[in-house]
Amino acid sequence: MLAGSLIAVLVKKIFIGRKWMNKKLLMVFVVCSVSFFCHFLLDAIPHKDYAIKSEFLFLSSVYLLIDMMIGSCIILFVFREPLMHFLRVVVSVNVSKIEVADNLKLASPFFLASLGVFFNILPDVFMVLKRILGMDFYILSQLEIFHNAMHSNIFPDLFWGWASQISFSFMVVVLLVRLVFKVENKIYSWLAVEEAERILSEVSQDREIEK
């Protein structure tokens, strides 16, 4: 979850202010595809994994829910400012279209992070559909083969498994906090430039009308 949100912020940082055709669609595509394949790269690193055998299924489900709750809380905290801009749009009354558009632009890192999180955990969702729910589609079978081939066969003990994952998570959170702050400032600067261009355009139009 954290890796997916980090990928989203990095992509957003690269794309901000660039005048590319279909920029938004391209940005979404890059976030989704990179986040999806990043899952397999992370699986290649030795780590402590969940047991999906029937006798451990309940316990693994509890651990999974705890993991997802912790990850969600961290992501909501890091992206609290973009989330607040989105909520302003939701509850906004009698505001201009420009204000709504600006708030949505400021909320975009949260949207992208949500996509990054979803696509980063999607390969495991497919494995649940295949192994636990018994959905045996060709695509799921081929994906499971690729997933197993990429997955590390080294399973560290409890201490080293937790140590490596906590260290990785801490590093990602630090990067996220720094990058989200920079991206927010970059969006503010971009919006300031757009506002200046709008004002200049209105002034020039007024002058033309006066003439």
From TrEMBL:
<keyword id="KW-0812">Transmembrane</keyword>
<keyword id="KW-0472">Membrane</keyword>
<keyword id="KW-1133">Transmembrane helix</keyword>
<feature type="transmembrane region" description="Helical">
    <location>
        <begin position="106"/>
        <end position="129"/>
    </location>
</feature>
<feature type="transmembrane region" description="Helical">
    <location>
        <begin position="25"/>
        <end position="45"/>
    </location>
</feature>
<feature type="transmembrane region" description="Helical">
    <location>
        <begin position="57"/>
        <end position="79"/>
    </location>
</feature>
<feature type="transmembrane region" description="Helical">
    <location>
        <begin position="159"/>
        <end position="181"/>
    </location>
</feature>
<protein>
    <submittedName>
        <fullName>Uncharacterized protein</fullName>
    </submittedName>
</protein>
